[in-house]
Amino acid sequence: IDGLATLVKEQFELDPFSGKVFLFCGGSKDRFKALYWDGQGFWLLYKRFENGKLNRPRNQNEVQALSSEQVDWLMKGFAINPKIKNTKACEFY
Fold first, then answer.
1. Whole-model pTM above 0.85?
2. Exposed, middle or buried: residue 67 (CB in 10 Å: 0-12, 13-18, 19+)?
3. Could you give the CA distance from residue 29 to residue 32 in angstroms, rounded to a whole number?
4. Which of 58, 68, 85, 89 could serve as a FRET partner for 24 with CA atoms 20 to 30 Å apart?
């Protein structure tokens, strides 16, 4: 917890005591950690997906703030930025 809070403060110049949830993706694509300060102490959540992989930022430029809806999607194993492939219209008759 202390190491993650230090990363939030020093590397990203954010306040770990702000009441925001900070998500961390390590070397594995099937797990992440979440750090949250509730006013009395830190919560640390560790999530490991049994099936599938987490779509995570590949570098610091891809780090982004997530909406509460995107966090919910992430916790359920869905992509936070769904990609919809554009296709050409087809004739059905």
1. no
2. exposed
3. 8
4. 85
